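Need C-alpha cells for this chain, all 557 residues.
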Amino acid sequence: MSTNEVSKTEVAGDAIVEDIHTHFPVVAEGSGKTANNEGAKEREVYNAELYAAIQESRIPPWSKAARKLYLCVFIAFCCACANGYDGSLMGSIIVMPHFQSRMHNGNDGWQVSVMTSLYSVGSIVATPFAAAVSDKWGRRVGMVWGCFGIIIGSIITASSFSMAQITVGRFILGAGIQFMTVAAPAYSMEVAPPQWRGRFTGFYNCGWFGGSIPAALVTFGCQYIDSEWSWRVPFLCQCFACFIVLGAVHFIPESPRYLFANGREAEAIDFLTEYHGGGDRNARLVLLEIEEIQESIRQELNDKKIPWWDFSCLFRTKEARWRSSQVLMMGVFGQFSGNGLGYFNATIFGELGVKSVAQQLGYNVLNSVISAIGAGTAVSQTDRMPRRKVLVYGTFACAVMLAINGGCNVAFGRDQTNINAGQSALAFYFLFNVVNSFTYTPLQGVVPVEALDNTRRAKGLAFYGFLTGCLGFINTFCTPIANKTIGLNYIWVFVGWDCIETVCWYFFGIEAQGRTLEELEWVYKQPNPVKASQHVDRIVQQADGTVTEKIVSENNS
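Here are the C-alpha cells for all 557 residues:
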C-alpha cells in the first residue's frame, strides 16, 4: 500500500512547489521459502525492486502510449541522422572530379584536413551553450536550435564557391550538431521506461546509420551528374532530417526529469502515469520512478546554483569523477577505436586497389549497410546484454580485426598484384566496422546518459560532445595527413590503442544494465563502484511473474 506526504521544496530558482513523497512497496526479504511453491524459480537480477515493478507494470508494445513514445525516440533518432550523414558525406565528396576541379583539394593532405575538421571545431565551440539551452529551456528546444544551425550550415556549404566558404559552413554545421547531440540522447533516455531504456537510447545512436546510408546512396547516385550539382546536392540534403524534427517536435512531450527539476511536478507525474504506468497513478513502476527522481533532485539542488559556464560539478567529488570517467572513456574510445577511418573510406578503398570512383562509392554504401546491421543487432539486445562485457570483448575483437587488416595491407603494399591480399584487407576492414558498430554504436548513446545524474546530465553530455569534437578533429585533421605520409600503416596505431582500451574497460567500466538511473547513485558512491556495479539480488519469482521475495543470506545480508 502506497502512502503520500506533501511538503514544500525549492526546486527551481525561488519557486516553491509541492513535493510529493511517494513510498512504493518494496520486495520482502527472506530466506527463499517461497521458492518451494509450484512453478516458482530463483533469479539473479541487478535490482529486485525495479524487476518487480517492471513485472507488475508491463506496457503493451502497440498501445497508444507506446506508439507516442516511439515517436519521441524517432525524433531523437532523426537528430542523430544529421550527424551520421556527415560521417559518410565528406569522404565521398572529396574524391568527386567536379568538387576537386572547383576546390583543388586532392584526396588527402592539409587542405582536406582543414575542410573536414572545422565541423569538429564548431562542435567544440558550441559545447557550453548547448548545455545551457538544454538545461534552461528543455531538451526539445535544444533540438530545435540544432536544426536551425544545420539548415544554415547546409545552405552555406551547398552554395560554396571557395574553400573558405565551405569551412565556414562546416563550422556552423558542427555547432548545430552539438546542440542536437546534447539534447537528443538525454531526451530519449529520460522519456524511456526503465525496461526499454537501452533499446531507446541505442536506437537513437543508430540514427548515425540513418544518416550515413542515405549520404552514401546520395553521393553514389550524384556522382553520375556531370556538373557541380554532383556535390552540391549531397551538401544540400544534409538538412533533410531537420525538417522532420522541426515538424514533429511540437507534438511530443517534454522529458519528465527535466519537468521535475524545473518545478513542473504535476506535468512530470502525468507523463509517468500515462506513458510508464498505463494510466495507473499508483502503478508500482510509477511510484518507484517518482520517489527516486525526487530524491535524486533533492540531493542535487545545490548544483542548480552553479553558473551555466561552470563545469566543475562534473569533477568536484569522487562520485562525480567516477561518473565523468565513464563519459571520458566512451567519448575517447568511441571515437578513436579506428572507426574514424570511415571518414575517408573512398581514399582507403583506393589505396587497396579500388581505382574507380563509382566502385569506391559503391563500397562505401556496402560498408554503411553492413555496419548498420551490426548496430541494429546490438540495439535489439541492449537491455539484455551486460554493457561492460560487450565493451571489453568487443573492443578486443576490434583490435584483432584491425591487426589482420594491417597484415593484409602490408602484403598488398609489397606486391600490388597480390589481389587476394587486397581483397582480404577489404574483407577484414568491413568486419572491423561491423564489430565496432555492434560494440559502440548503441552504447555511445547509452553509457554517458546512464552515467550522469539528472542535474549534471546536460553539462555532462556537453562535455561528452566536447570530447567527441576534439577526437573528431584529430581523426579528420590527422588522418588525411597520416594517409599521405605513412599510408595504411596508420592502422597499427589503432591496433595498439584498442588493446589499451580493452584493459581500461575491464578495470574501470561500470555495469549499469538493469538499474534505474537514480539507483546508480548508490553504485557510484561505493568505495569500489566497478565491483558494486556487478552486485546482484537473488529473488523468487512465481509462475505468474510476481516477485515474492528477495533472498537474504548470511553472505549477502
